[in-house]
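Page 47, continued from p. 46.
Same chain as before, 318 aa.
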Amino acid sequence: MTELISPLIEQRADPFIYKHTDGYYYFTGSVPAYNGIELRRAKTIAGLAEATPVMVWHKPDTGPLSDLIWAPEIHFNKGAWYVYFAAAPSREIKHDLFQHRMYAISTTADNPLEGEWQEPVQVDTGMDTFCLDATTFTHRDQLYYVWAQKEEGIRGNSNLYIAKMDRPDAISSEPVRLSIPELEWEIRGFWVNEGPAVLVRNGRVLITYSGSATDENYCMGLLWADEDADLLDPKSWNKAQEPVFVTDAERSIFGPGHSSFTIAEDGVTDLLVYHARTYTEIEGDPLWDPNRHTYVKRIGWTDDGMPVFGSPALKNDT
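Result:
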């Protein structure tokens, strides 16, 4: 009998889970108040649900990082912990909601929940526009930065970009645009490509991302390149023409997206981490509805090595 998935952690959007070499899983995500960066850790994924959260950084009352702390991710890059996140100026200063820029904080502590975190450093892409949802990955000993950003002259809220990093808090190459919102399922409500997540498997570099407004239309797309290709060449990348992970209205899981990847306790099974809602009756802007919950499910694979995500509502459909 196929089982329905339940939330791992309620009211945590933009979830990110990382398994470190110390055997712990580390979790972060957007908190409903959007007021800081919360971390938790546990020896198992299930244990994250009961783990004590620690607010390791809190937004200041004024200035460019004083509002709307979105989509943190925790990574261990070049011997230190980094949390990448987006922040906006106070809305009393900037009345336009979409004024985010990207930042990183770091600590060299063994346990990042107990560490002393350095002051945020802005990750400047050379484009002074709305940007967010940064992730990093290392491939062939090269650290890469992937993110979403508005580009003048291109319709929509954000596109996807990639660049090299020589150090974990700064890009070292020109941004390369990988994808723009152009397909019907990417432009419902808002024209959006955002929330990239990277998985290298079966000879490919895979990037999932999310499109459309953050209501029931939110869904996931997929980019991929050969692992031997030049990842900074847009021609290296392929784009799925249909979404790969969508609302399951029959089972009341709506707007699945903003994914990340982790590995199960067996060290083998790939897992998809994502958020979704259980209803569509949202009053006002969906961004202010706190009930985007964290879910985790197993990823399936086709015979030719492409991922199968199945339904966001089901545990064993892949």
